[in-house]
Amino acid sequence: MKKTIILFCVAILLSATCYFTVFAEGYDSTTDPVITLSYINNNLLPQIDVRINELMKLIENGGTSTGGTGVSSSEITNLGNRISDIESKLNYTASSDELKSLANRVTALESGASSGGSSASSQYIAIFVPYGMKLIAPTAAVELILRSGTAEIVSPFADQGLSDITGGTDLLNKVNIIQNHALIIPRGGDGRGILITSPEGAYVMVRGVYEIVE
């Protein structure tokens, strides 16, 4: 009788062991939302943020830490794709603001990568400027027209800003810009420009040497 009871208990223990072994082998940590969110917050997003900062510095220095070749557009595209993967495939929304910020910075990289951070045009061209980014004149006067979204004046001076040619006024720091008004940044290199305030970004017509910065 005792032998039968012992064998029965052993059989139960073996069955339980097999069950937990199968469960452990079939467990996939990527389906655990807590682990997934933790991995994104602590690994993926910081890595992307660091690389974007590195690329921005390279662009400002002409492509390399000492100047020279341009930053690879394929790497910028890959960064954008990684952000899209986090948003779509993982259905990740907990840090949507941070993802949007990273996506905007990648867009800014695309705008500046081909010419060492600054671009120039002798005619008006339409460019997209992401939310929270500034358009400034690094070397000389720049003409611009806000076509969509919202923006405000950025100026380090209390009594100097941008010239509103359409309205015939001077727009000082933090003044909201009216769409379709022709503006002039009168001098380059002094920090004056515009700051995009619409979350969806804005399109700007620009003529002259400009730079998009944080």
User: Helical region count?
Assistant: 4
Strand order of the largest sheet: 2-10-4-8-6-7
Task: Give me the CATH architecture of the largest domain, please.
Answer: Sandwich
First-to-last CA distance? 81 Å
Fold-level CATH name of the largest domain: Jelly Rolls
What is the CATH top level name of the largest domain? Mainly Beta
Topology pattern, helix = H, strand = E = HHHHEEEEEEEEEEE
The helix content is 40-55%
As an assembly, this protein is single chain
Structural class: alpha+beta
Using only C-alpha atoms, the radius of gyration works out to 27 Å
Q: Report the CATH superfamily of the largest domain.
A: Clp1, DNA binding domain
Which stretches are poorly predicted, pLDDT < 50 over at least 5 residues?
5-14, 16-35, 63-69, 113-117
Main sheet: strands, sense, barrel: 6 strands, antiparallel
Estimate the strand proportion. Answer: 15-25%
Count structural domains.
Answer: 2
Would you tell me the overall average pLDDT?
72
Shape: elongated
- Can you count the beta strands? 11
Structure notes:
This protein is an alpha+beta fold. It folds into 2 domains: about 30-115; about 120-214, Jelly Rolls, CATH 2.60.120. The chain is about 40% helix and about 20% strand. The protein has 4 helices and 11 strands. The protein has helices at about 1-25, 35-60, 75-90, 95-110; strands at about 120, 125-130, 135, 140-145, 150-155, 160-165, 170, 180-185, 195, 200-205, 210-214. The strands form 2 sheets. A 6-stranded antiparallel sheet has the order 2-10-4-8-6-7. A hairpin with a 4-residue loop joins β6 and β7 (about 170). The longest helix is centred in the first third of the chain and has 28 residues, at about 35-60. It is elongated and about 55 Å long.
